[in-house]
Amino acid sequence: MRMISLQSGSNGNCIYVESGDVRLLFDAGISGSAAEERLAHHGRDIRKVQAVIVSHDHGDHIRSAGIFQRKYGIPLFVTPRTLSAAQGRCNLGVLKEIQHFRSGSALRFGTVAVHTVPTPHDGEDGVIFIVDNGSRRLGIMTDLGHVFSDLGRLIASCDAVLLESNYDPHMLANGPYPKYLKQRIKGPRGHISNREAAELLGPAFGSRLSWARLGHLSEQNNSPEVALRTFQEVCGSSPAVGVASRYAVSDVLEV
Ligand SMILES: [Zn+2]
Ligand SMILES: [Zn+2]
């Protein structure tokens, strides 16, 4: 199994995963042309993607789902509540190929199972994903709300993970955001911090986990250097940890 992060952050999210002849996208928060170009950079054809599976209704995860479908023929997999909330939030345009799933259920694509796990984030009916091809498990885990009780065990059950590391508490407290937004981000239905991500990853590296990418970094309240420094303070330096960029496509990462 391989993962390519096309983009990760509050400015838009889109993650590509392939295993055998199964090709999936997780979230549709970047433009169709950006997704097409970033996949082509690694020799992948967006028209061969079989599904885009959306985590929740926030625009940075779903805004281009209609374009992905109309321009590239990619069916949209979404929960009914997420879809109706998203249609009230952003203009998705005409949607023809919709496959509904229930949060907490598993989707099956050939030999690949995609397990969905509900989160306490303030999106509508939000989920995170574990992609399992029978031998390897990849977690795609952002917009977490808070460190909920099962999260550490789920991360430790994966071989690799893209994990939210949204903000540095000091930068958030001293940054330009209005008070209500600061409260939302650090509150129980917002995002998790660099330290919380590091404290989750430490024990998981002693278990099954072999690499991690820190993702969904805030522009204003974080930086790749600060997120990695916090990880090193908590867990020590590790070549197995990097950052998924807000602006650029990642390498092809083998799970
Ligand atoms: Zn988000
Ligand atoms: Zn969100």
The major beta sheet can be summarized as: 7 strands, mixed
Report strand order across the widest sheet. 6-5-4-3-2-1-14
What is the radius of gyration computed over CA atoms, rounded to a whole number of angstroms? 17 Å
Which CATH architecture? 4-Layer Sandwich
What are the secondary-structure elements, in order, as H or E? EEEHEHHEHEEEEEHEHHHEHEE
- In total, how many domains does the architecture comprise? 1
What's the tally of helices? 9
**In what range is the share of β-strand residues?**
15-25%
- Report, as a whole number of angstroms, the end-to-end distance: 5 Å
What is the CATH domain class? Alpha Beta
Which ligands does the model contain, each kind named once? Answer: zinc ion
Uncertain stretches: none
Outline: globular
CATH superfamily: Ribonuclease Z/Hydroxyacylglutathione hydrolase-like
- Rounded average pLDDT: 97
CATH fold group: Metallo-beta-lactamase, Chain A
User: In total, how many beta strands?
Assistant: 14
Q: State the helicity in percent bands.
A: 25-40%
